[in-house]
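Sat 14:20. Reprocessing the chain from the morning session after the first attempt stalled halfway. Input below, unchanged.
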Amino acid sequence: MIKSILLSVDGSSYTEAQVKYCIQLAEAFNCKIKVLSIVDIRIFEWAVVMGTDGFVPMVPSNIYKEESQKILETKADAVLDKCSSILKQEGIDFEVEKISGPPVDIICEKARVVDLLLMGARGEFAKWKSRIVGATLDAVVRQWNKQILITPEKFKRVSKVLFAYDGSDRANKALQLAGLFGTGLDVPVVILTIHDKKAIRKKYLDEAGIYLEPYKIPVELLGVSGHAEQEILNIADERQCDLIIMGAFGHSRIRETILGSTTEHVLKNKKIPVLLSK
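Finished this time. Tokens:
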């Protein structure tokens, strides 16, 4: 069951959609939201290191550091206040916390006591970067071992789920998420298997169908051949799916390195949330 969600926000253009997705999940699962805003101390550490070790040494003054931290603290407070206002209006059970420190370490530590971590695909410096996902998200996914919901910049209510299933042990374990989200959100689930051999596609789809039968949700079993990256996008479009669930690891055509090529391709080309199961 999903009874608690950690919502890590930084005030970027992705934050509003994060909050809205969190609200839909909180209503579906009757769970508590923990909203976290981090004052990133790396900015001050970077300034000091660059000042002392640079070609022309120039150590920032205490006034610079104090004023910079005050600005970041004020921003973090404002972000939490706005999130609180939205969540209160929707009647969501939540708590907020502001912490100063390195974001990746803090997020991983705080995520240890929740069922689900929710992060935006990119952060507050997104418009100056060409990366498909933010550096903080990338580092968190590489370190963390629970499910992570990665949300796009714009919110769209989830009405159908696509689960990419490759028959691996991790994907088999993640079938529970497909059942939970289908039941909790009261939406149909499309199970997609991608393999060149028809017999293997049938085997994996039969497994998934039998597993999900007790959940009493509408399930469509679909097997195709081709490239995983493109077929996931094609089927998500054809079936009008609003959430993709996929494993962070696998052993077949949906094989992943953590946040690897398939996931990056899906995030770049399909602006819907992706739930990574690990």
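The domain at 161-277 is CATH 3.40.50.620 (Rossmann fold).
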